[in-house]
Amino acid sequence: MPIPDAPPLPLAEVASRFDLTHRTLRFWEYCELISPLPREKGGPRRYAPDQVARVGRSVRLRRMRFPLSDILDLLALEAAGGDGAPAATRLRMLKARSDALAAEADEIAHARRLVIEERHALHGVEAPADAPAEPR
After folding, report:
1. How close are the terminal C-alpha atoms of the chain, in Å?
2. C-alpha span between 2 and 14 (Å, rounded)
3. How far apart, in whole angstroms, are the C-alpha atoms of residue 83 and residue 65?
4. Of 38, 61, 84, 88, most Cβ neighbours within 10 A?
5. Whole-angstrom Cα distance, residue 119 to residue 109?
6. H/E/C letters for each residue in the chain?
């Protein structure tokens, strides 16, 4: 949540705060995920506190591996309020993301098992008993 009387922050500070590149923030502007304050000629990009909070929220959603299009949708639903249809839609989107990540984790575990088997085959031995079980 933004601090009401906080001053706008320049792009470099926002990038540093969230460990993002300047290019990422400019791309997010291009995608209309965030909006800088109007710039003076030759002045730096600056972001109001609400936009800094939006960057933070977007970073968290990216860590959940949401695509930018879904982040835009989620932020719009959050702005619409926490009750009723927006909340139900957000819950569905979060459940779908959780399910997709679980499926991806299974695929990664399977791929890891295959790599372990291949590595041991190259050494002329079978996979050790303590190797992770194949989930499929």
Report:
1. 43
2. 13
3. 25
4. 61
5. 15
6. CCCCCCCCEEHHHHHHHHCCCHHHHHHHHHCCCCCCCCCCCCCCCEECHHHHHHHHHHHHHHHCCCCHHHHHHHHHHHHHCCCHHHHHHHHHHHHHHHHHHHHHHHHHHHHHHHHHHHHHHHCCCCCCCCCCCCCC
- Please name the residues in contact with 117: beta carbons below 8 A apart, sequence gap of 6 or more: 127, 131
Cα 99 to Cα 64, 104, 105, 106, distances in angstroms: 12, 9, 10, 11
Confidence (pTM): 0.77
Work out the average pLDDT over 43-61: 96
56 and 15 in contact (C-beta within 8 Å)? no
Q: How far apart are CA 20 and CA 28, in angstroms?
A: 11
pLDDT score for 119:
92
Q: How confident is the model at residue 40 (pLDDT cuts 50, 70, 90)?
A: confident
Residues in the chain: 136
Percent of the chain with pLDDT over 90: 71
Cα(45)–Cα(29) distance, integer angstroms: 11
For the chain, the average pLDDT equals: 90
